[in-house]
């Protein structure tokens, strides 16, 4: 029995470090733009079966930044197959993760990551097309880029079918009373919060990139349709949800109108849409596009998505209210500690009526106020009796249990105004078209309740197993000692799954400049950093894409 107990302790201690801890060195190199060193550091850190998808994503991205576009696509194509929604997960895999650490389960990715696999592959194919040694090969690679754009469309349609649209959210204000009542009751699980508002339901920038790929292939009507989908998403709620400039929708509408011009729409239709959707500033930009012009498109991929951190919560029981109570604790610096309490209040703190009443009954007026700093899980007398029958109440009475969930610390995006210079002439500034950092944070907000309940069940189970095994030891002294060791071990080994694709950019800025046919040597300045491109030869009606990676 003692040996079984020690074996259990080893299982509990397995894999306690966070994902960020294990890849910190590689990320530090990436943040300095040292792509080869970053890859050398990340490869051994991610060389395990559970992180196979992350290995392909991170290394595939770094290969692109090194200009190895074919190798990047080979890795990302494998990642695309692994990230499929219906990826199977074995019972043994889940059981091991439940007893040890959630990082021991196979990483499956999310909707955003699936979309950006195809996004990066499409950019790889465009870069390879520029290196093609024959027109037929160039056309073949441009078609391959277009295939990836269509994959983006398929993936976004799948996500859109599973989540409420911006119109659905607006319509909730006018729905029937009984539907509002059902939503209110369902809110007890989510703490009274409407997590639908935070879901990644579509991607305006992904739709916009579809339009750009169609335009490069001179399929102007398909480009118009994609640009219009992007414009409608930006104005319906995407720009507001992810804190983007209002000009994002206008930029997309401007490109809709350009495709209408190329597609032979009447001047009256074009004029009406231009007056309805474009400000005088954007109408002036539209007028700068001349027939026969080429265009340089700069895509600045800036920074990195934030890494998840771990938040620790104490779990204890409240038998009088037949409930479990969670409250945060932290021993980090002041800023990090403030972030923990702010995230907890935003995502988990008791705000629904039943929890407020329970807090009041157990603690009077102060109890309901203290609910702002706690989360109460009301079980009811029936469930509480079942816990007593299984001795779970004794586990809770004899020790504190640590629950660990992922969260994001505060971050700020670079709001500098980049400038594109061509032939010593200052050209229009870049426009932030998407914020992957904001998408990642809101995805975590949407699944926060699921994370806390999964962690609660995992830690209760681990503590209960340790308690039951130690209670079977006949020697009282040994049982007491091993029980104490078990409590400390379970407490110390609690962990959260903080994995995500960390070499993705924090934000993407777009600069588009129409140019007469000719040779140009573009320069792009952001803050004090100047990026130069080799001379480009621009033909009439040709689009050149500069995929610029700014790690700072």
UniProtKB/TrEMBL annotation:
InterPro entries: TPR-like_helical_dom_sf. Gene3D superfamilies: Tetratricopeptide repeat domain. This is Tetratricopeptide repeat protein. It comes from Marinomonas sargassi.
